[in-house]
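Margin note: ligand = adenosine-5'-diphosphate.
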Amino acid sequence: SQGSPSDVILPGATLGVLGGGQLGRMFVHAAQSMGYRTAVLDADPASPAGLVSHHHVKADYLDAAGLAEMARLSQAITTEFENVPAQALDTLAATLPVAPAGAAVAVCQDRAREKAHFTGCGVSCAPHAVIETQAQLDAVQDELLPGILKTTRMGYDGKGQVRVKTRAELIAAWDDLKRVPCVLEKMLPLDFEVSVIVARGRNGDVVNFPVQHNLHRDGILAVTTVPAPGVSGAVAVEAVESARRIAASLDYVGVLCVEFFVLQDGRIVANEMAPRPHNSGHHTIDACDVSQFEMQVRAMANLPLVEPVLHSACLMLNLLGDLWFPGGIATQTEPDWPAVLALSGTHLHLYGKTEARKGRKMGHLTVTGSTPEAAHATALQAAAILG
Ligand code: ADP
Ligand code: MG
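Resulting structure:
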């Protein structure tokens, strides 16, 4: 049964995670280091999390037998994949604690619902229009152009979106996207992007990690820097307060990441949120006293949440598959890890994916330093080695 809100799930129990990607793998590592056993649901026999978990249930998210096996093995369930069908979470919630709940995940899966939720919390987002019908397309106001047309569901790493300058381009773009439900967002003049990760417990306690500065390349996160350079105290407070409010009003349990745009006029607007640990929080493993993955364990197990402390300045560099093909060579070669690890303050994380592909997230490198300048200097040296 769901148990009472104060029921603690102690180490030795088995924690289940839906999804076997790198986020699941780092969750499994954190849970295991605290003495938990783990169960992963992922159909891929070589999934990064499945490879390191006590149990690996190789089934689809909606496979009834697979879900029943997860429920039998686990004392609580979380997710690492935001597009896991909310129905799978609801099914599991009938017999054991599930965090976050399917209802909260469902909001995060749909850009239109997500934006409505932001607005309802008094958090501003980009001016936008929902486009599900020809009439809605016809009614789009000129002031939303130039804009970005995004599918409401399943987009990630810049996929499922098209930049449009004119009404003609908008019409063509919606056809290209097969006329699925979309959101047209006004293109905003960004200064830079930040994100805030919060964790919320069953009792309503909320903690937050410090604001993260995120640099994207080709729609994919490239570098996260903490402390976030160029962020005023007022912007940091607004981002943190907004993220905490968004989590509370979803009655959220678990780890939630909210991404924001900081505009050239200094205002901030919420972009999107993820109902799970986030790529922009990977540095917390090496630069904070409690990582985002340990926080996910604590939240789902009903253990105390404590405000995390950043003990080192850091930069997190995503390691994409491109690095395995320097200068466009044809055969996969391993980057020069010994040279990178010879630099003091480098922490290498590889996700156990054997095949490198362009744009595929293979791992990340966190560089810590006693000052932001020291971390930055080391990160530049590491980047030069990686090429
Ligand atoms: P994804 O789910 O692929 O991460 P996002 O909505 O976060 O999709 O968009 C990817 C990136 O595109 C953002 O990080 C930002 O750099 C840029 N972007 C998205 N929406 C806007 C906008 N309204 N104005 C300006 N840039 C945007
Ligand atoms: Mg994004």
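The radius of gyration is 21 Å.
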